[in-house]
Amino acid sequence: MTIRLEGECSIQLSYGAVGAFDSGPWPRLQSWAIAFARVPDMQESMTDKGVRKIDAYALGARPLRYFDFCMAGFVAILLLSNLIGAAKLSTVGGFTFGAGILFFPLGYVLGDVLTEVYGYARARRCVWAGFGAMLFMALMSWVVVQLPPAEGWPDQKAYEAVFGSTWRIVFASVTAFWAGEFANSFVLAKMKLLTQGRHLWMRTIGSTVVGQGVDSLLFYPLAFYGEWTNAQVATVMVTNWLMKVTWEAVLTPVTYVVVDRLKRAEGLDVFDEGTNFTPFRTSL
Predict the structure, then answer these.
(1) Which of 85, 95, 276, 277 could link 99 by a cystine bridge, Cβ 3.0 to 4.6 Å?
(2) 180-220: per-residue pLDDT in tens?
(3) Contact present, 114 and 172 (Cβ < 8 Å)
(4) What global pTM score does this model have?
C-alpha cells in the first residue's frame, strides 16, 4: 500500500486492509510520515553509524529513549554536588579545594551531552528543571534548619553547619548555575553548526571555558565580595575555573563514548538550525 502525503514523499507500507490502521501504531506512524514529507532536513542521508542528521525543530515532541534518564542524572548531579560536596574542604597533596569541585563539573559534561545529542531546546528544559530543583532544595534546607530541634537531640549545630547556607550563597549559586549552563549550551550548539558536527572535543572544551567562566565570574563575587579580600576572590575564582576546565578536558574521552552511544541508540544527531535560543522558555 502506498500513501502519498503533502509534499513529494510517498511511503510504501506492507500492511493488510486500510481499516487496520485506525488503531494501534498507525496514528503515530502517520504523524511521523507527515513530518517526514514536510521537512526536507529529515530526508538527509544517514551516516555510516545509522544516525540521521536532522534540525531540532523537525524532532518536535518525539519521545526519546534515554532523554529522561539524562535529565534525571543531570539534576541529581547538580543537587548532590551542591548539597554534599559544597560544605567540605579537603586537602590532597598539599592542595586544598572544595570537595564539590570533583563532581559539579560532571553536570557540565552531561549538559554537553544533552545539547550535543538532543539539541539546545531539550537541554534548556533540563537547565530549568535543575534551577527549580535547586530552589526547592534551598527552601527545604532553610525550613528544616529553622525547625526547633527536639529536646535531647544533640546534632542541631552540625546540621546547621552542613545545610545552613546563607541566602547570599544560595542566590549566588543558583544565579551562576543558570547563567553558566545556558552559556555552555548556547556556545556548544552554535559551535556545532559552525563546525558542521565535527571536532566534538573543540565544542565540549570551548563551551566549558565559556560556561564555567560565566559561572565562576558570577558566583564568587556574588557570594564572597566584601567578606574576602579582592585578591582572595580573584585567586579562588581563577583557580576553580581552571580546575573545572581541566576536569572537562580529562573527561573528553568519556564524553565521546557517551555521545556516540546515545546517538546510535536514538538514531539521531540534532542540529539547532532553526532553534529559538532564548533561555526564557521551556517549550520544544
Answers:
(1) 85
(2) 999 999 999 999 999 999 999 999 999 999 999 999 999 99
(3) no
(4) 0.78
